[in-house]
Write the structure tokens for this entry.
Amino acid sequence: AAREGVHVTCLDLSGAMLHRLRRRFAEEGVRAEIVEADIVDYDSGRPFDVVVANFVLNVFPEAAMREVLRHIESLLSPEGVLLIADFTPPGQGLFERAIFPAYYRPINIAAWLLRLCALHPIYDYARVFPDTGLELVTRSSQSSQRHARTDVYSSRFYECIVAKPLRDRRE
């Protein structure tokens, strides 16, 4: 989006991650507002049309994840949308319920041991949206493209979700 001239704000608590981002953007000639802050303390003073949270909400324990979603909702314009890419909760099929823990849990435990995230389940964001002022617009895990590094169908493990503020807030 920044390459297309859209005003982009990048927010992270990690100064090291933001340093890498600044360097990458400089190499590519991309401009963006880069902010080092905790998401729940952040207030831009203006609403956002789009907030993107890719593989970030899953690092929080459930109570904190709900707090972050409530705060993101407060940052959205009335017609704004939240885009989430994250792990898909296991489906109802026997194969998915059996293979998913073997795929996901070792990754989660390794990240936890490195103190990168909390041990947590895969969240069903649509289930918590009503309590956080959001409503589901769409969710998609229908891609049939293979994940380049693992050679597994990415739709079994990842999904994209679009949410928006609840209708009563927009009226």
Summary: Residues 142-155 have pLDDT under 50 and may be disordered.
